[in-house]
Amino acid sequence: MRNLVRTYLSAFNELGIETWLMHSALLGWWWSKQLRPQDLDVSMHISEADIFYLASYYNVSTFSFKNPGIPRATRYLLELSPYAKDREQADQLHPADARWIDTKTGLFLNVYAVRYNLSRPVGEGRLRRLSCKDGSEMVDTDLFPLRVTIFEGVPAKVPFCYRELLAMEYGAEALEGSDDTL
To answer: Where does it reside (predicted)?
Structure first.
């Protein structure tokens, strides 16, 4: 899973796709700047504009990376859902907009596009509501501007209000005892 995350972050950085950690990956970053040992379901977020870009130019593309400690390069497949461009969740069993897949092991991480929620009213102070197919909801000022950091030894980004988002998802007690440094 660590190689999966490292190669995903590196590839998306090379493609100019702005991606950021969410859910358990963000919690792992909070505690150790790494995945937690129990993380088997990793989710990353990207913008709606970037999912359209990937759908247009990179669907079913393979990427090759030389990972430390592995003699030969590993190939990864970027596969977009047929519903990636749809705002609504059409596939209840597989809501991810894309997957980054290790072609040798079959391990994958899910990629979700974050979209402005047109059905929800603009919030207090003209805050714009965002949502994605993994059920996440937030306001745009919770995410942007993204903060640059390191995760699993490679450059990564996290939401601007990472502490508040983690507390909403996992409870404040899940954050107690960390030194909270980017």
So the answer is: Membrane
